[in-house]
Amino acid sequence: MQASILNSFFNPRSVALIGATNTPGFGYGIPLFWKRNGWLDRAHLLNPKGGEIQGKKVVSSIDDLPEGIDLAVVIVPSLAVRGVLIELGRKGVRAVIIESAGFAEIGPEGKKRQDEIAALAKELGIRLIGPNCVGVVNTANRFATIEIMDSSMEPGPVAIMAQSGVFGNILLDHLPAAGLKISKVATLGNKVDLNEADFLDYFAADPQTRVILMYMEGTRDGVGFLDAIRRTSRKKPVVILKSGRTPYGREATLSHTASLSGEDRVFDAAFRQAGAIRAENLQEMIEIARVLTTQPPMKGKRVGVLTTSGSMGAMVADAAFGEGMRLPSWKSETVERIKAKAPGWMNIRNPLDIGPSGIFRPACRAVFSDPNPDGFILIPVIPYAAIEAWIRLGVKIRDMLGDWPVYREKIPEKPVIAILLGYKDYMEQIRDLCGTVVATVSSPEAAVRALSALHRISPHSQCP
Amino acid sequence: MQASILNSFFNPRSVALIGATNTPGFGYGIPLFWKRNGWLDRAHLLNPKGGEIQGKKVVSSIDDLPEGIDLAVVIVPSLAVRGVLIELGRKGVRAVIIESAGFAEIGPEGKKRQDEIAALAKELGIRLIGPNCVGVVNTANRFATIEIMDSSMEPGPVAIMAQSGVFGNILLDHLPAAGLKISKVATLGNKVDLNEADFLDYFAADPQTRVILMYMEGTRDGVGFLDAIRRTSRKKPVVILKSGRTPYGREATLSHTASLSGEDRVFDAAFRQAGAIRAENLQEMIEIARVLTTQPPMKGKRVGVLTTSGSMGAMVADAAFGEGMRLPSWKSETVERIKAKAPGWMNIRNPLDIGPSGIFRPACRAVFSDPNPDGFILIPVIPYAAIEAWIRLGVKIRDMLGDWPVYREKIPEKPVIAILLGYKDYMEQIRDLCGTVVATVSSPEAAVRALSALHRISPHSQCP
Questions:
Q1: For residue A382, which residues of chain B lie inside 8 Å, CB to CB?
Q2: What residues make up the domain containing B168?
Q3: For residues B393 and B426, is the Cβ–Cβ distance under 8 A?
Q4: Which residues in chain B touch residue A384, judged by CB atoms under 8 angstroms apart?
Q5: For a 10 Å CB count at each end of chain A, is N or C smaller?
Q6: Distance between CA B136 and CA B181 in Å, rounded?
Q7: Are residues B104 and B35 in the same domain?
Q8: Shortest Cα distance from A389 to chain B (angstroms)?
Q9: Is the ipTM of this complex over 0.85?
């Protein structure tokens, strides 16, 4: 039943926009987006002035709307929202997104307005998203209640839940370049009705979604929220970025989405127990998501590291310690195999630092064949001048570093992550080499945290 | 006197390469680089087999080298280094870079070899960089003892000191795309003779260098090193990235450059007291460096924040709390000025979250005129679909967000940082708007840590 009402938000048969306009802003951008994406036929635009927008006739009152509208998107000023809601209720609309700001986030007066609206919606049997949000996006049917760049509408496995509208939107802009594609987005705003738990359950059941990213500032129903995370993270990884970690941040979130963001340590422990993965910052959230969409869960905590840079190897070791991961020794067969190819100065340990020896290819095959690690981090950072010299001689990156996708076929159950750093053409070449089977990240810390996340979603993990 | 010997490394009148070859590797790449950069005339190449490399005659023994060579670069196998050093001493060479690996980092046998070399150099009056490094780079005279991409040789204000050769080299590859240009690089390796303190003093006096970045794994002479940081950071900011922070990392650094990386908390406190800026990770080090090369020191700890995203504002607030920075209130005049332009829903606080109101331009002028903050963070994250709508109407980014470089002229003594996130074309446009006078970073955390760094280098800071 919850799922069916959420379906009205993500898959409406018809939609009304209350507050369409002909001047830049939401009221202009949304009809434009609907036109570009084939939704204008199923849309009704409303503005008291009437007229035409994007070639579509505008109705001047809610009374003039047809019956049977699945979803209304409201972008009128906050003072007018109450009246709109009453009329929408009368029309039988049961799903409403209030994008307008000017509610609890601005203080007591706004809070009063918000409480009135919440009570009214309940009375009218209307389910609400918002206020103070930009609603939803569904890439599968190209529906959105905000104008989105076409580049962000390519369907993918990542669902996003953001408390804030602008932030959700910015994430959408940012993700294509970061190599992530989206299934659905929900921006929740002040959450007078539908909240994180509702959308977690919906995304958990959504066949298009494989990973859930969540930006939150706080929650009103902590118990219900943690229960929902627990249910969801049994099926799909949930990565959470939370602000309001400190007194300053808490004050800022209060005036932003009127959230009580609570004690950070409490959230941290609760998230972990409930099986969620907490990201330290936005970039890490994005990189972890990229790994989670392509790599298998990691059965144990043992990481094998192959690096051309001892420094980067040491950074991975530091990060592994911090995350409670382990760096197992290599089997003696592996050590022998590497020794046979290695110059005398090489120290055969884990992290395995091959320096400028040029033996990445045989070393990669050797470590992949070692049963001790449960997952691997490759750090093929090589000065590009050296690479160029080889390329000039007709040697390919694949010949130098090994054909990772092929080697990897023998260990499909183990995640493999490459850390990229260096000259941009080289990073492009490594990305090509990785293809879709080896994940890439930009830092030792992100690599280790991503493996730790893959471990936590494994059925073999001790965590729930 | 120290400076004059270091000058032989960065500005040699003549240089010899012991171990030049015609097959890919250091022995091939270095002569190639020297040829491309006009150094082959001042170079002598040595290989027992003789012959020609890059059109230059190769001498077959050190005896055959001319007198008066300023610098020798040694890349022969570790077992041959001792003999080479004796012959170089006999030839009167006083500055030697040993790039060869196979010393203390591989264990007791290598350590013994390294101790012999150290004693020998002392006896012969030779100053050493290395072993296990790639020596130096000087962009001003286009000299380097390793092959470097041309894109990394454009002169700039950032000096780099890295313990590890590959890592120093990778940094060089990576920095042009990150917007940083280099003055000099020193890679120190196992540091049997010249160490961090020597190069800190040299860079402190180097007119081309304005900011010093340092990657270290550990030090043997902690007191001398901290003294050098103290001396240097009075003149120029020193940003340190240190690995070996944890037991795993310490073990890795031991086998990498034979460093005793010590207790992390001890280093952390000592760095701070000595006036250095510690970066959490590589990306942060790069972003802080970018800010330090363009922004003035920050007199106090008070940060003014203007944002279109409440979420990003909250993240800045969290980071500010963590760094001990403050978020002052706006003056009542500022609040009035903003109120006159703002819609009713807006909450006029610091961070000032203007949401989708479109008043970035007047809000920016208003907050810049407020005397309370000592520095500013701008977060102009706007969904690109909205930007595009304005661009279609002929409105420019500068008109929407304000002409920051012009506004900024009135507050030259205050740092201004913009956080970029979103669609890549938009980030490019914001970078254009910032020009060279507003620094850009990619995360709330980097913005705050960079301001904190600018405060610590201020003469008004309480820190030494």
A1: 166, 170
A2: 136-293
A3: no
A4: 149, 173
A5: N
A6: 15
A7: yes
A8: 6
A9: no
